[in-house]
Specification:
Layout (H helix, E strand, L loop, with lengths): L5 H21 L2 H4 L4 H7 L4 H5 L6 H4 L7 H22 L1 H22 L10 H17 L5 H20 L5 H18 L9 E3 L5 E3 L14
Antiparallel strand pairs: 1-2
Helix pairs in contact: 1-6, 6-7, 6-8, 7-8, 7-10, 8-9, 8-10
């Protein structure tokens, strides 16, 4: 398990640096979100028709590192900081990065095939929903012991999905695609540490059982 959260910090830093670059290229209107959509498209926003007809496949990646305003990136980076550190602590840095990358690509592909062809989509929320999916996969992987994690975060997931399908400016395609991908890939690659049951023998020869539980079993992030 990783205790440093290095990958999470790296991802937050990259997103923030890209946002500063957006301000430098598109102007301070980026802070409030007052910029022409054409500028965001030029900088790399994900536009399905640009991928399917003009083969600009790089937009699948770049769109997930662009944000439309200070509020947009602020909310996303807060969520990435909360969920990213927890997932990284449980599964380790390499696997957390893999989960994030797969979720990012899956969310973008979902946008390409299920969104309006000429609509521009940007933001890290699809990949972040992948981390939420990973959180639930971890809970299910722990079986009965992990149900507290699932129950504690289920209201948060339901609320986020309600927001996703309520506001037309939010890409449900990215959120659902990332959520499903994050759950599936985490369930496939993560295996909880086995419980250790040492046996301690007293002087009379009888065994005294004790049990060690992984510290992750008692960690329950709430959003």
């Amino acid at each position: 398990m990783s205790q440093t959260g290095a990958v999470t910090r790296f991802l937050v830093a990259v997103n923030c640096l890209v946002f500063l670059w957006e301000i430098a290229t598109l102007g301070t209107g980026m802070i409030s979100g007052d910029v022409p959509i054409a500028g965001l498209v030029k900088d790399g926003a994900l536009v399905p028709i640009a991928v399917t007809q003009y083969h600009e496949y790089w937009r699948i990646i770049t769109g997930a590192f662009l944000h439309a305003s200070l509020l947009h990136i602020g909310f996303n980076m807060f969520a990435l900081w909360i969920f990213g550190r927890f997932i990284e602590m449980v599964v380790g840095s390499p696997r957390m990065l893999f989960i994030y990358a797969v979720s990012l690509v899956a969310s973008s592909v979902s946008v390409v095939y299920f969104s309006v062809p000429d609509a521009a989509t940007l933001g890290a929320s699809g990949a972040i929903f992948g981390l939420i999916g990973a959180l639930f996969a971890i809970g299910f992987k722990f079986g009965r012991r992990g149900m507290d994690l699932v129950r504690a975060n289920l209201p948060m997931l339901i609320l986020n999905l309600i927001f996703t399908f309520t506001f037309p400016s939010i890409s449900w395609q990215a959120h659902v695609g990332g959520l499903i991908a994050g759950f599936i890939v985490t369930y496939a690659i993560y295996f909880p540490p086995k419980r250790i049951r040492p046996e301690v023998f007293d002087s009379s020869g009888s065994a005294l059982d004790s049990e060690y539980q992984s510290p992750t079993e008692n960690v329950t992030p709430r959003a």
